[in-house]
Each structure stands twice: as structure tokens, then as C-alpha cells.
Amino acid sequence: DTAVSQTPKYLVTQMGNDKSIKCEQNLGHDTMYWYKQDSKKFLKIMFSYNNKELIINETVPNRFSPKSPDKAHLNLHINSLELGDSAVYFCASSQDIAGAKEQFFGPGTRLTVL
Amino acid sequence: AQSVTQLGSHVSVSEGALVLLRCNYSSSVPPYLFWYVQYPNQGLQLLLKYTSAATLVKGINGFEAEFKKSETSFHLTKPSAHMSDAAEYFCAVSEGGGGNKLTFGTGTQLKVEL
Fold first, then answer.
1. A110, CA 20 to 30 Å: which among A11, A42, B3, B28?
2. What is the C-alpha to C-alpha distance for residues B47 and B8, in angstroms, rounded to an integer?
């Protein structure tokens, strides 16, 4: 009965490869997010979607392309991976885009680019 | 633009001692404020949130925080630390508009010693 799930949990790949991370929430929420946590544990928002519509695109390189096939899923595809993409990526969801709403986080995907 | 400053990247307390983690925010509008906890290799879990109701907010695991507008602060406290409180703590702010974007502080690593 996991609320926000991500796959895979670990991802190790070579520079230049393309990879995807999948996220699913079973909370019935309208809004989903992707955050990046760097090696110093700093968390920064990358994208948010509300009802499958892109709301926030936080000046992320266009090698990163989110896709929301439905409200319960928000996937992250990364092209031409670079060393600097190594990080932990967290998916989150909230009931809607109102600022007071709690965001529920997934367990994270640790991406290592060699 | 919203921002958060967490003073002290590492805090160490004895078991049973008071926990005080500091957070100051900057926001152009009345903010929504959150404290999240991250245990090793896990996602973030909400401890508590301030959404313009009571200024003293009680959360899970015995934590509480007080919103002080005059000091632009939202410090997290717990009267008596437990070994299980050892984790990374993040303060975050949302201005509400623009898609519930959370801006995080740099985090405080809490260590609890016997």
C-alpha cells in the first residue's frame, strides 16, 4: 500500500546513455513533482504537473523530459546522461497545487553516472 | 522570491536533551512553512506544517515549531531527544502561487548521543 513509489531504486549507467525513472502515486492526488537531491543533500524542484499539465519547469536542461500519461504517473526520462546528473531523484505528490498542501515523497532513485 | 536558511548543518545533542533546529525564511507573501525529516536512504516525511492558523504547530514524534513573523523564523524543537531522532531535517517554504513549489533549506543533520 505504498503511497508514492519509484522504480528503479538504484540506477547505474554510463555517460551518454538514456534512462527513465518511473513514479506512481495511489493517493488520488492531482499534482506530482520531481526533485533532485545532490551529493550535499540539497533538494531542488525540477518539475511539477497538475492534472497532467506542466506547471513548473525549473530551468532544467532539456535533456530531462517529464511525461505524465495520467494523474497517477509522472515519469522522468533523461537523455545523454552526464556525470553531473548523478544524484538522488525524488518523486512527490500533493492533493492539488495549493501552497498549504503537504507533499508526499517517494523513496528516491539513486542515479550514478560513470 | 522565497528562500530558507537553516543555521547549523550539524547539530549534536545528548539523549534526553532539548532539540532546537533553526530555520529562517524569506518570502514576499505570507508563507506556508514545513519541516520534513529524512532518515538514511529514505524519502522525506512531513513532521509539521504552518498554514496561517495557530503560530505554534505540533507535529509527529513530539516535535513542534513556532512561527514568528517578526523574526521570520520557524524553529523546530523537541523537549527530549531520542536516539531514533537522528536524521536529516529540512525546513521548506511555499508561497502558494505558482504550483506549490517547495524551496528547501540546506538541511541540518541531527546527531543524538548517549
1. B3
2. 19
B99/A44 touch (CB, cutoff 8 Å), yes or no: no
Calculate the CA dihedral of residues A98, B54, B108, B71 and round it to 10 degrees: 100
The answer, yes or no, to whether residue B54 has pLDDT greater than 90, is no
If DSSP codes are grouped into helix, strand and coil, which group holds residue A102? Answer: coil
Mean pLDDT of B56-78: 96
Quick one: three-class SS letters along A25-66?
Answer: ECCCCCEEEEEEECCCCCEEEEEEEECCEEEEECCCCCCEEE
Cross-chain Cβ contact A94/B100 below 8 Å = yes
Q: For residue B29, what pLDDT band results from cuts at 50, 70 and 90?
A: confident
What is the per-residue pLDDT across A46-56, written as a single tens digit (0 to 9) for each?
Answer: 999 999 899 98
Query: Which among B90, B96, B100 has the least Cβ separation from residue A43?
Result: B90
In angstroms, the Cα distances linking B81 to B61, B76, B77, B113 are: 10, 12, 10, 9
> Is B104 in Cβ contact with A100 (below 8 Å)?
no
Which residues, in sequence order, are bridge partners of residue A36? A44, A89
